[in-house]
Write a structure and sequence with these properties.
Elements (H helix, E strand, L loop, with lengths): L35 H15 L8 H15 L4 H9 L5 H9 L10 H18 L4 E7 L5 H13 L4 E8 L2 H9 L1 E2 L7 H7 E3 L6 E3 L1 H4 L2 E5 L12 E6 L8 H14 E9 L13 E4 L2 E3 L1
Parallel strand pairs: 1-2, 1-7, 2-6, 7-8
Antiparallel strand pairs: 3-5, 4-5, 8-10, 9-10
The structure holds S-adenosylmethionine.
S-adenosylmethionine binds next to loops.
Amino acid sequence: MCIIHRQQWLPMVSLATPLLGGHINEYPSTNLIMQDAEFQYLSQLAFRESGIVINESKRDMLYGRVMKRIRYLKLTGFTAYCQLLQDSYSGELSAFINAITTNLTAFFREEYHFDFLHNVALADFKHHNQDKKLRIWSAGCSTGQEPYSIAMSVQGQLPDWDSKILATDLDSEVLWRAHQGTYDELMGIPMHYRTQYCSDMNLQHRYSMDDKIKQLIAFKQLNLLSRWPMKGQFDAIFCRNVLIYFDDETKRKLVQRFYSQLKPGGYLFIGHSESLQSFNTKFKLVGQTIYQR
Ligand SMILES: C[S@@+](CC[C@H](N)C(=O)[O-])C[C@H]1O[C@@H](n2cnc3c(N)ncnc32)[C@H](O)[C@@H]1O
């Protein structure tokens, strides 16, 4: 896989027009209070650029995350931070988006998905994919534990297949870490995979994914709300614990797009607290938060 430089993922989108009609000078001066207008501005910006809904109940979360940026940048407060965001040359928009994403993940998270992948889906592909080709998309891959878990499962069962896993996220920082493929701990990875596919880097508590596993995965920055450049369809899509941050309209549209992006018979895996029940889809429920086209 080619070397990807960190800067390639930054900055991502430029903000040409201020959201509040250019009334930036109306922001109150220096303080560490987030005014209502600033909260509105930041939450609308987050929604417009990422689909992430930040309502009143998440005000403290937004405050904490933006405060970290303010301190890091040594700014005087929220007013200055909002002004910086409106300067399209500052590159801060990308850092703001990175700051507001929630990246919690784990190896083999929601183990029943990996049991299903192992016992049902891969067996199904073995039977149907005569060309021995497998395409899987981890959409919202965070720091990489999800695509690496998929890759270990695939490599373990279909070692001689032409398998490729596309792993995408909006957040350039987590994507960079995912691409590195090094971790402080391997919790969740079954022992037989650890011994086969993970190496101790001779540093205390630092482990690396083996090249055999890394080369199955292509990491790319992709905003799920934007156009998807992928031409082919997938055998399976994992979009777990991502939809939860969006409103119903965004979820409904995404689920429809996932349907079209899957091969007939392909599987969609969503997060444990997510459901397609309220959307009118053609997906069949075939397991716990697992759907089939
Ligand atoms: C909680 S993590 C889930 C990670 C992994 N799928 C799992 O279940 O362990 C959610 C991820 O979705 C990403 N995300 C949020 N909004 C996104 C968007 N509009 N496009 C792409 N990724 C997005 C975040 O950056 C974050 O890494």
